[in-house]
Amino acid sequence: MFIFWDLKKAFDKVPRPAMWAVLARFGCPPDFVTLVRGLHDGMVGRVCHQSSLSGPFSINGGLKQGCVLAPTCFSLYTAAMLNEIPPDTPTIDLQFRMDGGVFNLARLRAKTKTTKTLLREMQYADDNATPGQTAEDLQRTATTYNTVYERFGMQVNTDKTKALIQHPPGQILPNINTTINEHTLEDVEQFSYLGSILSSTPTCKKDVENRIRAAHSAYGRLSCRVFNNHALTMATKIMVFQAIVLSTLLYACETWTLYRSDIQSLERFQQYKLRQILKIPWESHTTNVAVLNQASVTSVEATIIHHRLRWAGHVQRMEPFRLPKIMLYGELANGTRPRGAPKLRYKDQLKRTLALTNIDPSSWEQTARDRATWRRAVHHGTTAFEEKRKENEEAKRRRRRERQEQPRPPPTLPCELCPRLFHHRLGLSSHI
């Protein structure tokens, strides 16, 4: 369960006296605080409307819009607010262990060798997400954070602040009805947080669908000026497609946990757009491999694999206290996975990816510690995967054509009511 917070005019609501006190609290020299204060005191503004300017008016609150210091000052102010959150606020407990191999989950059962930490909030700029394990925990979190925000002069936008429940597999939880200042927060099925879609089902399907829609929109905006422009070369169009459309499609793909249906949806989008750019009609029966070769573009799956391995190398080289590394080398301290076929995890997909690219899952961490060596391993592994994938596609196509060219045996199943013969029992039963 999560609450996604929205603050009304966050930068404009910061009380300046409190801001100067926060700077001093974090150890900024008095001369520096006086300098920053001088940039804000006596600030005036004017409104431009239809080429005419209004009279000047005083701006006595908030941070200076457009100033390079504003984001840093607001981050310090946010840190001061989060420091006032009581330690008994509900959190999500994590346990991790950096040795023993990331795929050896049995190492986390050693209680004396694992380290426990907690996840209280996920703050980025003025966007914040706070987790909870029960409806009561989420209500306590909402009340606590709202109290701290108000104490620091901020105001929560209850209309845009949402609650999201991630249901356990096979269960549908009721609405939690979290309230802030007697206003019930809306329970949503999905929410866009930092450009990614988080949904009530713990999969990336909604995020993939959102990325495909965004890529369609990016392609449409460039159709007239680029892709349908006869003055541009085909190489230029392909470069623009890769730089803008594919970048939009695969935003944050290194963190996705994908199923085969998700990859197929992404591949279909790329094939559809490349065939439009290359002017390849469907009547030509051009294979997907031929389209990729003509455009000199790799498949979406190979691109995602490259990004995933590159990100895994970055995480492995992080300091042990960084949250991404803790999440990769740890798990939830509470709860169990269901039996049968549980949801695919990022670790599961990373292990499969390493095997597909001929990288030993038991020694990849040692390889990733050296950035140049890991980059070469990722490049060679991704190239080998793409070549093998193309060979498998061509072999599958040849087998399909061979089956079509083989003479079909005559029907042998007779109908009891007429002299007609059938090849399969399904056809016979449908006929009867």
Automatic annotation (TrEMBL):
SUPFAM superfamilies: DNA/RNA polymerases (SSF56672). One of its GO terms (biological process) is DNA biosynthetic process. It comes from the Eukaryota. Residues 385-406 have a biased composition (Basic and acidic residues). Pfam families: RVT_1 (PF00078). Residues 379-415 are annotated as: Disordered. InterPro entries: DNA/RNA_pol_sf, RT_dom. Residues 1-198 form the Reverse transcriptase domain. PANTHER family: REVERSE TRANSCRIPTASE DOMAIN-CONTAINING PROTEIN, REVERSE TRANSCRIPTASE-LIKE PROTEIN WITH RNA-DIRECTED DNA POLYMERASE DOMAIN. This is Reverse transcriptase domain-containing protein. It comes from Petrolisthes cinctipes.
